[in-house]
Amino acid sequence: MKKLNTLLEKNSSYKEKIYSFLKKNGAIIGVIILALLLLRQCNVSGRLEEEAKREHNNYLAAQDSVRFILNKNGNAVYEKSAYELKMSELSKENKELIEKLDLSRKKTPEVVIQTVVKYVEIFRDVPTRVHKDSTGQEFITFLHNPQLPGENSLKLSGKIPYDIKINQDPNDPKIVSASLFSKPAEINIDQKISIVSGLYRDPKTKRLMTRVSTDYPGITFSDINSFQIKDTPENRKTLMQERKRFGIGLNAGFGYVASPLGISPGIYLGVGFHFSPKFLQTDGFK
What we know:
Elements: H1 2-63, E1 67-72, E2 75-81, E3 83-85, H2 92-100, E4 111-119, E5 128-132, E6 138-144, E7 153-168, E8 176-182, E9 186-192, E10 196-201, E11 208-214, E12 219-229, H3 233-241, E13 246-259, E14 262-275
Parallel strand pairs: 3-12
Antiparallel strand pairs: 1-2, 2-11, 4-12, 5-6, 6-7, 7-8, 7-9, 10-11, 13-14
């Protein structure tokens, strides 16, 4: 009975201490709780605002087209809005671009940029020469190797075989004509085009933009398709769900091997079964 009374007295004492502490510091505790709630609400509002901006950016990107920005120092610069996508928002075309990089099952890229280049140029005054090989075949050769700016280069060469047939009028031997018969040509092209591309966020509109530039003459960009995959918990979960936890593979190593003669160091080879939990796998964005 005395033990019970003692426990009740201690319990009552604890309650009084707790009550006294709350009475003295209740206002401070209330302010802290309120601040935490406000901070949480601000974080939620911030995420909602960021999501709204992302969706607005994607809407504008869907309406955008390639724009010619400037031509400075001989560089052609083109620009188009880029998408900010989650894994669940990737279209069939987006997934096909990732598959072309051979990274779909290994590591998902953070940024994908596809540019469609249109090249139009007319070559004039290209020098030609007439040659004859050891077999007697005659052909016309040409070589065009202009000086281009930067790291660009072009070497266009080839030859066109031909035969000439002399025709004599059977009624008048003085009348002679010639016919030229061309054969399939051989053309060699050695070309290097320097293209620079990058993503940036506009400081005023906060939209994600893609710019591509080249100083190669005659190059224009008819289309630019680009998107950035957002690093979100949803994407990490999606990527991990696509990975396998179980697998079978070959094992090789050096260690102690048991044999009829006993245990001794040696090399071993074998087939093994492994298990890798998804929470230990990387998320594909690092």
